[in-house]
Write a structure and sequence with these properties.
heterodimer, A: alpha+beta, five-stranded antiparallel sheet, 47% helix, 15% strand, elongated, disordered N terminus, B: alpha/beta, seven-stranded parallel sheet, 25 strands, 39% helix, globular
Chain lengths: 584, 546
């Protein structure tokens, strides 16, 4: 909320400003206008054309929204009426100026705020409120890149889960409770909450929320998952830094790492209003905390240096210095656990993720081989021999006998029951007739109402997913589903979200293009309302004639006004007017 | 960062690389505050728990010491969340204290906010009898243990400084006639005595009884020993008489058949919890003498009513003994509150490596049900399936073959179902011991087995615990109490006493393939697998290769 007040006040706007701004709105690239509107936040209700929007933008609240982006020093300069070119340019970008002139209303609001808040130029742009040294102390409870690497691994786990099945969001864009429970249950224990991991994935652009489903983005996530852990971390760190606007960067740099000063510094830097910084800062700080580059109270030295320098070079050197060397070996143990005593290389990690269930995720990872995990691997195309060879190639010690037995036994039995979906339900076939005999009499499978149709084949009206679940629950080998279910691919490609501001600008521009008469009418209306003397050009049977009028009324398709030159009252059909402009 | 043997994970597990040169030293430091969760062959997993941290705090260790141990031996930085949690958790211990003012127990805290927080709990308020002007609370005389239980549940464990009753003095020393306590037994006793009360965890066959005897010798006080059954009571009695200077007239048995109250009294859990007209009939035993030490054998089996009694025995020094501190009812925190923290724990494989328990090989044999059995199994209800699978007649031929493959071993065939055991006993022509076998007959048969007169015996769960059969070197488990991990460990434990001829033990588990029997077997094996025991899996058809 703006500090200036709750009510949206409309200034007695100068017609020249209004017309100039309306012209600008009609001609600028909609995307560029949308950027400014995002900042200025005009009310979009009731806006029919460029004049309506211009009028809205020249309301004091909208001007204040624009001015809130200027530092105290710039506000003072702007209020002087003759600011440097850089400030004028900025005003133009924010639609606070046109044709190199800052709108008088804008200057007036700047002066109002200076008087109201006693705004003074900052001694330097980068303040030194904090007397503490930048972060990075090795004391406990400070940020740690090691923690960040673990979070990166967890985000990778989250993507793997989402690749398998997207999760639903509520109408408000949050994860539903059921989805959260599902994701939590499938992720290894983590310091970071699943909801925070999802937010991180969304803000970093690795996942998308489309049509109420959260899924990985095909174009980004697949490539990211192929990176090593350190490179994944660096990618995310660069993304986080890339989210920092120049204004947010200025504030963070001014805090000198002490995040306790953030609100104070933000307010001192952007005195008209600094609340607009919060969402972006929270997003970036959330990502930096996840990466181990910030604690609750401080930025790490590396993050501070990267912000100061405005480059990612320091981040790259930090991860090179602090990340442990990746390993491609692990230990396979008799209790069916697999321990990777360090960060795994991406390819080995991905394969292990497929074969075994993750139990503990940290700089080391522990996995457990289970019948279920092996069946899933076999479903995805692994073979028993392939799994054993992979484990033998990467294990530091021989593979225990019981592990080998488990793998070969599971592989031998995999596919001994096969399911095929069809329009009528599911066809079930078995390797042996005896196995089908058991399935047919099994008390736990009665609900399927299996009907034998051949020696080793039965049918049911129940869908294959249910058959698979019931058969597994009853202790049978996991059935192999021969036809994949038809479902939406879980990985999405990036689809630019519709920007409502762009839509608005496009609409009013098309209004202007399609109805030049309407544009003219709005100019005349404005002139009447503001009692502004105008020059109009009228197409007469004998040619075009110019009149300078003090307009009095506009009604029934006619403009009535006093002809300044002839000192007579004139009534002109609007349809005959071909041009309107301010009187010289 | 040192290349240490530890990796601390953010889920509070700590991985210890066993082959690292510092592993042994680090393990001892780690055991102070972390629970050994798994000890397979290469990497042991410890878990940092609240109870573990409070145990450490109770023993006088600080959060800084714990963190220093982790940081100095870790391969990677300790996760910041874990470090913060350790500090926070350890700082909670001792903010409340239980003290004694003459005969009155007092709950006190320097932090009035904590005291206010815990006394908001109705369960805690019910145990307090009055507030003193200094803000402390008087505790009901009987509520010392219950109060500690409730405070643990609230996350504010109290430091119990109310002290112990010394008990009546008893002259007792160890009979040092050619034997001495092993180093780990000495350590266990030292840790117990330093801590005051608590639990000692040692593998079956590693000499837990001697830890109890050693504790008696050090405390020199009248002792009440609670055991699981009468056979065990008699074994304790024999061991006490053999290992100490005590004479038979000071060691009494208090069981269903004998009611002797002597300076050393060995009572069964069963007699202590026996009720007459709704009342515990033998509670008087607890106050019959001025016990200075109460020993709970197989503390993982402590029946719920004994917890209640224990709550009222808080003024006595308490020692719990077990091989597996796994309670199938999940009441481990009650053991912490009422008996005391775990004072000593040693990985099974470490004791085995030192030669104090016999090495053992575990083999799971998968047996196929025949087609008729398979159909019958499929058509059965869930509740009947385990029994059907576990007692398949197909197991008999495998048992026969295994017995024939071990002509020189003494073999226990262990099972759950009495009709299955009866069938096996009859088919094999060997004696059978179940709960129905009279105590004297049991002892006679056990003695025959020890002497070699009987080579193979079929036994029910009565032989799961506290039966000393050092000569048994092969066990064949045909069925069990569903997925009980501690039962599996206890059954293996029957084989772990070192053999005279140095032979190793073999533990077979017979499992019906693709049935619930196989699922239960996997769960049963978890504890031993986590202790480093490997289970080879063999198809019944390949038995000759075993």
């Amino acid at each position: 909320m703006l500090a200036g007040g709750v009510l949206r006040r409309v200034t007695n706007t100068e017609p020249a400003s209004l017309t100039a701004l309306a012209r600008r709105l009609s001609s600028l690239d909609p995307a560029a206008v949308a950027v400014a509107l995002e900042v200025r936040r005009p009310r979009s209700v009731g806006i029919k054309d460029a004049f309506d929007l211009a009028q809205e933008l020249l309301s004091s609240d909208c001007i204040d929204n624009g001015l809130s982006r200027f530092t105290a020093t710039d506000v003072v300069k702007l209020a002087s009426g003759a600011p440097e070119r850089k400030i004028v340019n900025r005003c133009e970008h924010l639609l606070l100026a046109a044709d190199g002139q800052i709108f008088p209303d804008v200057v007036a609001r700047a002066r109002y705020w200076i008087a109201e808040k006693g705004i003074m130029p900052l001694p330097t742009e980068v303040m030194t409120l904090s007397t503490k040294e930048p972060g990075g102390s090795s004391t406990r409870n400070e940020a740690s890149i090691s923690d960040g690497l673990v979070n990166v691994l967890l985000l990778n786990d989250l993507l793997a889960i989402l690749e398998e099945n997207g999760v639903r969001t509520t109408r408000t864009g949050h994860l539903s409770k059921a989805s959260l429970l599902d994701v939590s249950g499938r992720l290894p224990h983590a310091e970071m909450l699943p909801a925070d991991l999802v937010s991180w994935g969304l803000t970093s652009g690795l996942i998308d929320d489309l049509d109420g489903m959260i899924r990985p983005r095909r174009d980004v996530a697949v490539k990211w998952r192929e990176l090593g852990t350190s490179d994944k971390w660096l990618w995310l760190a660069k993304r986080a830094m890339g989210l920092l606007s120049p204004e947010a960067r200025l504030v963070l740099a001014s805090c000198r790492g002490d995040l306790g000063l953030l609100a104070q510094v933000a307010h001192a830097t952007y005195p008209i209003d600094s609340s607009w910084l919060s969402p972006a800062l929270n997003t970036v700080l959330g990502a930096l905390r996840a990466l181990g580059l910030a604690s609750d109270s401080r930025l790490s030295l590396e993050a501070q240096e990267a912000i100061d320098a405005g480059t990612d070079a320091r981040l790259a050197s930090a991860i090179r210095e602090k990340a442990p060397t990746e390993v491609s070996t692990f230990l396979v143990q008799q209790d069916l656990s697999i321990v990777a005593p360090g960060l795994l290389t991406a390819d080995v990690g991905r394969r292990l993720d497929t074969i075994a269930r993750i139990e503990s995720r940290g700089l080391a990872s522990t996995y457990r081989l289970t019948v279920d995990s092996l069946n899933r691997a076999l479903d995805s195309g692994e073979t028993g021999a392939g799994i054993t060879d992979f484990l033998a190639d990467h294990s530091l010690t021989p593979i225990p006998q019981n592990v080998q037995y488990l793998i070969s036994d599971t592989a031998d039995r995999h596919g001994s029951i096969m399911l095929r979906r069809d329009a009528q339900g599911t066809s079930l076939s078995t390797y042996t007739p005896h196995l089908l005999d058991s399935l047919l009499v099994d008390s736990n499978l009665r609900a399927l109402k299996l009907e034998r149709v051949a020696h080793t084949e039965a049918r049911t009206r129940v869908d294959a997913d249910t058959v698979l679940r019931l058969a597994e629950d009853a202790g049978y080998p996991r059935p192999l589903v021969l036809t994949s279910p038809t479902r939406t691919p879980p990985v999405t490609t990036a689809a630019p979200a519709a920007n409502p501001w762009v839509e608005l600008v496009r609409r009013i521009q098309s209004e202007t293009d399609d109805a030049p008469r309407g544009w003219m009418g709005r100019q005349l209306e404005l002139a009447v309302r503001s009692k502004q003397r105008i020059r109009v050009t009228v197409a007469m049977p004998d040619g075009e004639r110019d009149f300078v009028l003090d307009p009095a009324a506009l009604a029934n398709g006619r403009l009535r006004g006093r002809d300044v030159r002839g000192a007579v009252e004139r009534t002109l059909p609007v349809d005959f007017i071909i041009a309107v402009g301010p009187a010289e | 960062m040192p290349e240490g043997p530890l990796i601390v994970q953010s889920d509070r597990t700590v991985l210890l690389e066993v082959a690292h040169p510092d592993a042994t030293t680090v393990r001892h430091e780690l055991a102070v505050f972390a629970e050994l969760e798994r000890a397979p062959e290469h990497v042991h997993t410890y878990r940092i728990t609240r109870l573990g941290l409070w145990n450490a705090r109770a023993a006088g260790h600080t959060a800084d010491e714990v963190l220093a141990t982790l940081e100095s031996h870790s391969k990677f930085p300790v996760p910041t969340g874990v470090a913060a949690d350790i500090v926070d958790t350890m700082n909670r211990f001792g903010r409340l204290t239980i003290e004694r003012d003459a005969d009155i127990l007092i709950l006190r805290s320097d932090d009035s906010a904590v005291l206010t927080e815990v006394t908001k709990s109705a369960k805690v308020r019910d145990l307090l009898v009055g507030r003193r002007p200094d803000g402390s609370h008087e505790v009901a005389p009987w509520a010392r243990g219950t109060l500690k239980q409730e405070l643990v549940k609230l996350g504010w464990p109290a430091e119990d400084n109310a002290g112990y009753r010394p008990g009546a003095h008893m002259d007792i020393s160890l009979a040092n006639d050619g034997w001495h306590l092993r180093h780990y037994q000495e350590h266990a006793i030292d840790h117990f005595l330093t801590g005051g009360s608590g639990v000692v965890v040692l593998p079956c066959g590693a000499g837990k009884t001697l830890v109890g005897v050693g504790a008696m010798a050090r405390t020199q006080t009248d002792t009440l020993i609670l055991v699981t059954n009468t056979v065990s009571a008699r074994q304790w009695r024999d061991e006490i008489l053999k290992r100490t200077t005590l004479s038979p007239d000071v060691v009494g048995e208090y069981s269903g058949s004998v009611k002797e109250v002597r300076p050393v009294t060995i009572a069964t859990y069963q007699i202590l919890t026996a009720k007459r007209k709704g009342e515990f009939a033998h509670l008087a035993l607890l106050d019959a003498l001025d016990w200075g030490l109460v020993i709970y054998d197989e503390v993982h089996l402590l029946p719920a009513p004994v917890f209640k009694l224990t709550a009222e025995l808080q003024a006595r020094r308490r020692l719990g003994l077990t091989a597996t501190l796994i309670r199938e009812d999940g009441r481990e925190s009650d053991v912490f509150s009422l008996i005391g923290p775990k004072r000593f724990d040693a990985p099974w494989k470490e004791i085995e490596a030192e030669g104090y328990i016999s090495p053992a090989r575990c083999v799971e044999i998968r047996i196929d049900l025949d087609e008729d059995e398979r159909l019958m199994y499929a058509a059965s209800s869930d509740k009947d399936r385990y029994r059907l699978a576990a007692s398949t007649p197909a197991k008999l031929s495998v048992v026969r073959q295994l017995i024939s493959q071990h002509p020189d071993d003494r073999i226990l065939v262990i099972g759950q179902y009495l009709d299955q055991l009866a069938d096996l006993g009859e088919a094999l022509g060997v004696p059978e011991i179940t709960g129905a076998t009279p105590i004297d007959e049991r002892e006679r048969l056990f003695n025959s087995f020890r002497s070699g007169e009987v080579r193979v015996m079929v036994v029910s769960k009565v032989a799961n615990f506290s039966v000393d059969l050092p000569e048994a070197s092969v066990a064949i488990q045909v069925s069990g109490a569903f997925g009980s991990r501690q039962e599996e460990a206890q059954r293996l434990g029957r084989l772990l006493r070192p053999k005279q001829d140095g032979r190793s033990a073999t533990f077979y588990t017979l499992v019906a393939r693709d049935t619930i029997d196989q699922d239960y077997a996997q769960n049963r094996q978890r504890f031993l697998a986590e202790q480093g025991y490997s289970y080879d899996i063999v198809n019944a058809g390949d038995l000759s290769t075993v």
